[in-house]
Amino acid sequence: MMSKEVFEKYESNVRSYCRKWPVVMKSAKGSYYTDVDGKKYIDFFDGAGALNYGHNPDFIKERILEYIESDGITHSLDMFADSKEKFISYFEENYLIPKGLEYKIMFTGPTGTNSVEAALKLARKVTGRSEVWAFMGAFHGMSLGALSLTTERYARGGAGVKLTDVTHIPTPDYIDGFDTIKYMRTILDDDHSGIEKPAAIIIETVQAEGGINVFSVDFLKELRKLCDDYDIILIVDDVQVGCSRTGTFFSFERAGIVPDMVCLSKSIGGYGLPFALTLVKEEYDKFGPGEHNGTFRGSQISIVAAKAGLELNKLEKVDEKVKEKEQIVKDYLEKEIKPLLDENETYRGIGLIWGICFKDGKLSRAVLDKCFEKGLIIELAGRGDSVLKILPSLLIENETLLKGLNIIKESIIEVKNQ
Amino acid sequence: MMSKEVFEKYESNVRSYCRKWPVVMKSAKGSYYTDVDGKKYIDFFDGAGALNYGHNPDFIKERILEYIESDGITHSLDMFADSKEKFISYFEENYLIPKGLEYKIMFTGPTGTNSVEAALKLARKVTGRSEVWAFMGAFHGMSLGALSLTTERYARGGAGVKLTDVTHIPTPDYIDGFDTIKYMRTILDDDHSGIEKPAAIIIETVQAEGGINVFSVDFLKELRKLCDDYDIILIVDDVQVGCSRTGTFFSFERAGIVPDMVCLSKSIGGYGLPFALTLVKEEYDKFGPGEHNGTFRGSQISIVAAKAGLELNKLEKVDEKVKEKEQIVKDYLEKEIKPLLDENETYRGIGLIWGICFKDGKLSRAVLDKCFEKGLIIELAGRGDSVLKILPSLLIENETLLKGLNIIKESIIEVKNQ
Amino acid sequence: MMSKEVFEKYESNVRSYCRKWPVVMKSAKGSYYTDVDGKKYIDFFDGAGALNYGHNPDFIKERILEYIESDGITHSLDMFADSKEKFISYFEENYLIPKGLEYKIMFTGPTGTNSVEAALKLARKVTGRSEVWAFMGAFHGMSLGALSLTTERYARGGAGVKLTDVTHIPTPDYIDGFDTIKYMRTILDDDHSGIEKPAAIIIETVQAEGGINVFSVDFLKELRKLCDDYDIILIVDDVQVGCSRTGTFFSFERAGIVPDMVCLSKSIGGYGLPFALTLVKEEYDKFGPGEHNGTFRGSQISIVAAKAGLELNKLEKVDEKVKEKEQIVKDYLEKEIKPLLDENETYRGIGLIWGICFKDGKLSRAVLDKCFEKGLIIELAGRGDSVLKILPSLLIENETLLKGLNIIKESIIEVKNQ
Amino acid sequence: MMSKEVFEKYESNVRSYCRKWPVVMKSAKGSYYTDVDGKKYIDFFDGAGALNYGHNPDFIKERILEYIESDGITHSLDMFADSKEKFISYFEENYLIPKGLEYKIMFTGPTGTNSVEAALKLARKVTGRSEVWAFMGAFHGMSLGALSLTTERYARGGAGVKLTDVTHIPTPDYIDGFDTIKYMRTILDDDHSGIEKPAAIIIETVQAEGGINVFSVDFLKELRKLCDDYDIILIVDDVQVGCSRTGTFFSFERAGIVPDMVCLSKSIGGYGLPFALTLVKEEYDKFGPGEHNGTFRGSQISIVAAKAGLELNKLEKVDEKVKEKEQIVKDYLEKEIKPLLDENETYRGIGLIWGICFKDGKLSRAVLDKCFEKGLIIELAGRGDSVLKILPSLLIENETLLKGLNIIKESIIEVKNQ
User: Fold this and answer.
1) Measured between alpha carbons, how far is A264 from B295 in angstroms, rounded to an integer?
2) Contact call for residues D92 and C132 (beta carbons, < 8 A)
3) Which candidate, D248, D247, D241, places its Cα nearest to that of D266?
4) Closest approach of chain B CAs to the CA of C361, in angstroms?
């Protein structure tokens, strides 16, 4: 049987990305995939944000190999483990404490959705309120609690039950001039709004799946203030845009705010291994022992990789690199891509997450296909899938970055000229 | 700072197992943990069922190391990957097809709860019904959809929202003489039962967390028939008791039934790495592309380990070994433990999952503590945590098995004599 | 346009009883309806229990006429009204206090479903728990809160939303030997039942719509004890079987128990006018002012009729009459009807609510039709509508009662001989 | 015992209006109440809209007395009744058909909340969608389904369960410049709004309890169009502002729109007797027989009163009268009241429902108390109860109307000068 036939015959119909890029991948390094025929592809998809340091970075790889070879603990739930102690100390002492963030670390099941479920449960428990607010355009995961927050109609349609206990709030300028902060304050104060005071407000400071929507620093500051004023827990979902994606390790640092809880997954694992954390201010750390748990919350190989990832991040001065490369992308988009766009098309982003917003999903899809032909893996996002999402590794060489951008440019030209 | 202080200072209060066994583990092999001081512990806990082949089995370890060294794909969501193709082919051709099981394989997020969430969503979608039935005593996970199925009061209390869309059905003899099948048929037929026909019935053929409750072969056959008669989807949650734990690869094989969906996680990954699958009959494989997804649904190192685990299982003739060791445990419990028990105490189990049911949780907890003192890691389960759960690796040497059983025996004696 | 055409043309398809008895009624007195053509019908339907004293009893009629003529207040919400004061005093001093029932009287919207909604809200508010338990076979109303309690599948199907926050408990012997009290105690004690401790348990001491299912005195006593032991509010829904229907003013008097809340409607109004009350023990009387309200909670003509009805009940010694007539019905069913029934058919009841249980709904419907031909209005109830419900006025003359029973007998004979 | 003591001793704490006007009323006629001491009060409260033709109008009173005296049917559920046929014919032929409204008439339980519950269930059933949209400020009733629509925080707090299946939409200018129609269209079109397409949108064309908020004709037209464009059912809740309150029999006539369903209660009964209807376009008349029902849906005395009320309305040319009196109120508010108001205070209304909006609820409450001292019964509404609601009978004599308005004026002066 041919390779791809195996998938068609035996894998569930739910498979998706493989439909966009129908080649079988065999190995990967840095910003490149290599398929079974030896063909190479530049990766601007980055495992949906799970590979911020690129594929199989040697620094982390060596530590994993060493750990496995030594028969270090692989799996031990939340027993005390040497590797875990080292991760905790390192993360607290080199990241959290220097940044003034006094968080307890909760090891949840190893996925973003699990980190979000844990935060939701905890916020509801400590406040005694069940409602949570999320923003239109939000994506927070696919298990039932997180899915209630997620706004994508297609994803919600798969639930099969009513998604409850969440109110979706329009983002700034959702309709012209819409003032989100004022709206939230008004419905909280209004004894006839019909909307309950929430346990928490959850936000991605940059909506990734929602179409690369960057919340402004002012907005984030005002949101923090609103949460303070009304005693609402502020949860930042940094699953996709954390770990230096936007130019600081935590995406909220640019606003100078401190969320009450932070959801981390994807690149916190460093090497693309399943891993997730929920950071919680001590005053909200009120779960009883095991009140939220999960078999893989202590996957030690992920933990070893995670610590190595944090070390690598410092070693490589990733935040600085992101800022340099952000400028490269921004300039390229302004000079090379913007002239190709129609009036109602645009681009936007921050750090190393950028979107080119086409007028419809047909166009963006055609560009994606063309990019793939030319050897670039890149994904769509946003309303009607109309946004081409540029999400390279944070350690991508500038040359490869430009090569990828050039493929996009050429693809747009070819598609628009068809 | 001392090792343990790091956890107390920085880890969330939700940490649990470490409270039972307050030593820091450093490495593990086979059925033994070794702590940072070099002390060894026999493992009858088995990562809550994630380590059926023991810690770090060399057969799998070698394949993982080789794969990592070769820069095989680590993370690729559900893109086509060479390693994944190999797993799918192997699993279908060496397990599913020979057993007459025509399942499509759905790669869900890498945890049991995610596999259950996927099955729930799919069952609800294909039937258009929202209700699902689970059994009292059930444990199916901790994210919101799965938590609605889980019966443990403590776990449910953490939800912070109403858990809906599930009806819990009493198990056979829940109260004396209770006929579960007759009850389910009656409420389905009764136009005044107030209970909706469910999309699905989900069952662990042996309730593990619920206290090692083994459903009889007759019950399982009748349940399958009931589902056929009423057009209800039968989901077997084999997360903890699959992968040969009960003496056959799938736990339902002993009843000769074919579920419509099967949830697998924990030991399907072979090496304790996060991995989960949902197996689905083709007629129910109705998710659209990406309608359920997740970042880590294609964790290739887990997939490589999973394939190696399946190979190892065959190589070691694990099913046969389980049957031999089952006899050892059974005999030991009958001859050595039963005489120590009170009238209202008992033991029960199948394969290599057994429970010693004490009259209360205080007693079982005292036995656990004593076992730990004597170098045995073992966990509790069931009502009031009153069941001591014997869950060794399926490849445990007979000598170690007996050593562990002896520790239990001595611990009971000491505790009962206090 | 002919009379009936008006209804077919303009009235909603939801109309129901008129389909069973397609004649247009013009007047009514005592136990008789008279149609527009002057034909008379004996009434064994009794406005579904709203006309315990028969149609238009003169004693009440005179008081209503007098009140209306004097321009007494008709509508005043819950302002203080002279007529309401008189009703409250009379009810407390002549019914509640002498019976040792220390209830506060809550005037809800004027329907049974509203009385139930009020009790539900209050029980949930005072306990802080959302779950309520009702029994399989229960009927408590058709607005959303009450409908969640109601078990009839057809009625529930009309909701259009998930009916939540209710667990339905099987009645004694629901399946052979089922011990309802033991079951409830078990699930309350079991930390793995998956079922929440409820705010309240609601019961009709005789399920009317459910098919004339009489709960035993022992069961009611044990239920009261269970509620005491677990601090659960006991609500008796006496909407259909209160007001002396079972031989005592409140249906629970035969068990010597005191519910925490009592729902009254239907015959409490005396004359068939819309009226409802919720009686509440002082300790649970915790609604804030107007926290549950409704435009017609103070319909003074109903209140005047209600007081007159209470007086009439005493004057006519209705409880004694019911006991005499109960004997007549019982004897008749035993001697005249039982011999006509098959082995799997039976009869049951108490006071003046009795059911003849046919083996299927086709048969009961045929008997109903035949009864109507012969001038008797009688309704069905229960599973598959297979129970013929005998519900005459409590003041029916013995002669008319026997006439109606004879019609039933003849109808059964004719139907069974077809 | 003194009159009032009876209520304090025996009536539930939920009693509310009696706390504002602590006198015991004995009789009422036209626009006047008389208390037990013979003191008269002008009524600007109007039974919360249930007494549009004033207290005990002779035209209706005579018909009721005659009907009761003749032993006309009082209660017959939804059997065919002569009185009901006459009501249906009259309403269809003299109101609905001449206005071009082709509605089926559904007789629901006799309260506004029941009419709303029926409409909700039906809209959900026919569309297969569960979500319903209501507007911030809305009041639609207190039983669970209707309460989910109602926005008043205090009322919602009494539910004791999560209120689900409803999204509340901000009204025009809820925050400055908010465009409600554009917002609704945007979230319907947006595949990432997180808000489901509803079965129905329900609206009071003038929010009464919400504080006399008059939706503009343009808004109502655009709302009708939106519902047409998206295939959403439009329900007008005319419970409080129907029956000529706003100057046309149905409140939506001023906008020239035809809702798909209309909820009627309160003054449709003419005489303050419990009565409610749901009008439904034939295409949506899809309930099965009895799928929604209720004991008092065929209260014939209410039906007789309702028909008489419809006749009286025509006889008295009520719509014309309302327009005359509207001018009187408007002029008075402009000339006499406005000068007394602060900058951030205002008045608004239409027909004979007007609100004086004070800057806070303390002030409005003080004015209410002062009015009561001076012999005027008048109620509050709106945010923080800050709106004094002028709701006189539609047949009030101009002299009494002015007398009442003068009392308001004097009360404001006195309160503001304190």
Assistant:
1) 13
2) no
3) D241
4) 12
Instruction: Say if A186 is an interface residue toward chain D (CB within 8 Å).
Output: yes
Beta bridge partners of B44: none
Q: How close does chain D come to A317, measured CA to CA in Å?
A: 36
- Two structure tokens written together for A413: 């030209």
| A3-53+317-416 and A60-315 agree in CATH topology | no
Task: State whether residue C59 is helix, strand or coil.
Answer: helix
Q: Give the C-alpha separation, B19 to B16, whole Å.
A: 5
Token match 């046929």: residue?
D85
Q: Is A125 on the interface with B (CB under 8 A)?
A: yes
Q: Which chains touch D (3 or more CB pairs under 8 A)?
A: A, B, C
Through-space distance between the first and last CA atoms of chain D, rounded to whole angstroms: 37
* Residue ranges per structural domain of chain B: 3-53+317-416, 60-315
Q: Which of C359, C14, C262 is nearest to C155 (CA)?
A: C14
Q: ipTM surpassing 0.85, yes or no? A: yes
Q: Which residues contact A356 (CB under 8 A, 6 or more apart)?
A: A333, A337, A341, A345, A346, A347, A364, A367, A387, A388, A390, A408, A412
Instruction: State the Cα–Cα distance between residues C70 and B179, nearest whole angstrom.
Output: 65
B173 touches chain C (CB under 8 A): no
Instruction: Map tokens 């083996």 to a residue.
Output: C359
Give dist(CA B46, CA B40) in Å, integer: 15
Q: What is the DSSP string of D7-29?
A: HHHHB-TT--HHHHS-S-EEEEE
D324 CB neighbour count, 10 Å cutoff: 11
Task: Report the C-alpha gap between B68 and D340 in whole angstroms.
Answer: 82
Q: What is the pLDDT of residues A302-347, one digit of tens each?
A: 999 999 999 999 999 999 999 999 999 999 999 999 999 999 999 9
Q: Which residues of chain C have pLDDT under 50?
A: none
SS3 content of chain C, % helix, strand, coil (to 5): 45, 20, 40
Q: How many residues does chain C have?
A: 418
At residue A287, the pLDDT reads 97
Are the C-beta atoms of D231 and D200 separated by less than 8 Å?
Answer: no
DSSP letter at D94 equals I
Residue-wise burial string across A99-136, b where 16 or more C-beta atoms lie within 10 A, e elsewhere? eebebbbbbbbbbbbbbbbbbbbbbbbbbebbbbbbbb
Structure-token pair, residue A69: 């070879």
Q: Is C161 on the interface with A (CB under 8 A)?
A: yes
pLDDT tens readout for residues B212-242: 999 999 999 999 999 999 999 999 999 999 9
Shortest CA distance from B193: residue in chain C: C136
| Tens digits of residue pLDDT in C18-33 | 999 999 999 999 999 9
Q: From C128, which residue of chain A is nearest by alpha-carbon distance?
A: A128
Within 8 A of D162 by CB-CB distance, chain B residues are: 161-162
* CB D159, CB D144: distance < 8 Å: yes
A164 touches chain D (CB under 8 A): yes
CA distance A73 to A389: 38
Give the pLDDT confidence of D332-389 residue by residue, as tens digits.
999 999 999 999 999 999 999 999 999 999 999 999 999 999 999 999 999 999 999 9
Given this structure, which CATH class describes domain B60-315?
alpha beta
Q: Which two tokens stand for residue B335?
A: 């001859």
Instruction: With CA atoms as reference, report the closest residue to A114 among A271, A240, A276.
Output: A276
Handedness of CA C190, C193, C197, C202 (dihedral sign): negative
Residue of C129, C131, C126 whose CA lies nearest to C282: C126
Residue with tokens 């004879």: C406
Q: Which CATH number fits domain A3-53+317-416: 3.40.50.720, 3.20.20.100, 3.90.1150.10, 3.30.1160.10?
A: 3.90.1150.10
Mean pLDDT of all residues in chain C? 97
Q: What values do phi and psi take at B208, rounded to 5?
A: -90, -65
Tell me the C-alpha distance between A144 and B325, whole Å.
Answer: 40
